[in-house]
Amino acid sequence: MPMLNHCKKVWTNFLSCGGFDAQALSGLKLVSASKGRIICELPLEQKHLNRLGGCHGGLLSTIVDVGGSLAIAAENMFATGVSTDLNVSFVSGAKLGETLTIDSRCDRIGGTLAYTTVEVKVGDKVVALGRHTKFVRLAHKTNAEKKASESK
């Protein structure tokens, strides 16, 4: 539970900044977290659909971006770096009213880069698979400064 609470604080910070994440993913629910891994759920709403009524590829790309960031947060990081590469494979569709389950993990976090994998499913059906690489050198510095200020 402590890691989930930490990730919820990070997510609340993301949302408080407004912008695209807050608009597109306001309904995202963080379900569970452990070291380097987080599970989230998102019920699909009308705003998440493309013109054909399916889950929009841009939404799935945003989910891979945010999912990767939250997986880095699950490494006990508050700052999560900036994207350097994002790859998404759209495997199958999802539609209005279905709930996406997002399983994100941090495969490796180094001093400069972090590598994450995100799997998006509806039930047992894979909807999208993503990889997200982030530059984290400055995030490590921010995290160290935050921890130092909290210990005073």
**Strand arrangement, largest sheet?**
1-2-4-5-6-3
| Coarse shape | globular
Task: Write down the Rg.
Answer: 15 Å
Unreliable residue runs: none
**Terminus-to-terminus distance:** 25 Å
Question: Can you give the mean pLDDT?
Answer: 95
Q: By CATH's scheme, which homologous superfamily applies? A: Hotdog Thioesterase
Order of helices and strands: HHEEHEEEEH
Structural class call reads alpha+beta
What portion of residues belong to β-strands?
35-45%
* Count of spatially separate domains: 1
Helix content: 25-40%
CATH class: Alpha Beta
- Tell me the number of helical segments per DSSP (H or I, 4 or more residues long): 4
CATH architecture: Roll
Q: Let me know the largest β-sheet.
A: 6 strands, antiparallel
CATH topology: Thiol Ester Dehydrase, Chain A
Q: What is the tally of beta strands?
A: 6
What is this entry, summarized?
With 152 residues, the chain is of the alpha+beta class. The chain has helices at residues 2-16, 19-24, 57-73, 137-150, and strands at 29-34, 37-43, 82-90, 99-109, 113-122, 125-135. Strands 1-2-4-5-6-3 form a 6-stranded antiparallel β-sheet.
Core attributes:
alpha+beta; PAAI_dom; six-stranded antiparallel sheet; 6 strands; Thiol Ester Dehydrase, Chain A; Acyl-coenzyme A thioesterase 13; fatty acyl-CoA hydrolase activity; 152 residues; Thioestr_dom
